[in-house]
């Protein structure tokens, strides 16, 4: 994902203190969105549409790579339902369907760009921790 800058509103909200109690509706929405976006296909579709703009269904599948037609269909439908993707059907034969990120989808991609930057920044530390853990497990007795 590209390193798009965060919006000013998001930056300002991050500077504010957290409220003493989270709104249960917002908390449920956050859990729902994280659950959906944390799956690899949603993130890859977000990235493909961000990089390439509007894509036809088959082009989107190729851009994502190694995704079944069924999984691509399910994922873009869910993204459309959540307002992240706009689906345009052109009345021609054979049917022509385009997918484009909505502004909401673009902003979600920008929000998750922070995870990309964090991983890039801490890549060496994470690799060292994984290697140390694996080395320790090799010498440790089985549980």
TrEMBL record:
GO MF term (any one): DNA binding
The name this protein goes by in its record: HTH hxlR-type domain-containing protein
Span of domain HTH hxlR-type: 23-127
GO BP term (any one): regulation of DNA-templated transcription
Record keywords: DNA-binding, Transcription, Transcription regulation
Cross-referenced PANTHER family: TRANSCRIPTIONAL REGULATOR, MARR FAMILY (PTHR33204), TRANSCRIPTIONAL REGULATORY PROTEIN (PTHR33204:SF39)
Keyword DNA-binding: yes
């Amino acid at each position: 994902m590209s390193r798009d800058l965060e919006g000013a509103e998001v930056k300002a909200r991050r500077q504010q203190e957290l409220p003493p109690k989270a709104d249960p509706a917002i908390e449920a929405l956050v859990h729902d969105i994280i659950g959906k976006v944390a799956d690899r296909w949603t993130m890859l579709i977000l990235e493909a549409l961000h990089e390439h703009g509007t894509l036809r269904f088959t082009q989107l599948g190729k851009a994502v790579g190694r995704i079944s037609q069924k999984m691509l269909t399910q994922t873009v439908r869910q993204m459309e339902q959540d307002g992240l993707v706009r689906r345009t059907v052109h009345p021609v034969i054979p049917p022509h369907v385009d997918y484009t990120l909505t502004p909401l989808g673009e902003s979600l991609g920008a929000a998750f760009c922070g995870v990309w930057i964090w991983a890039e920044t801490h890549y060496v530390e994470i690799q060292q921790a994984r290697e140390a853990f694996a080395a320790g497990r090799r010498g440790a007795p089985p549980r």
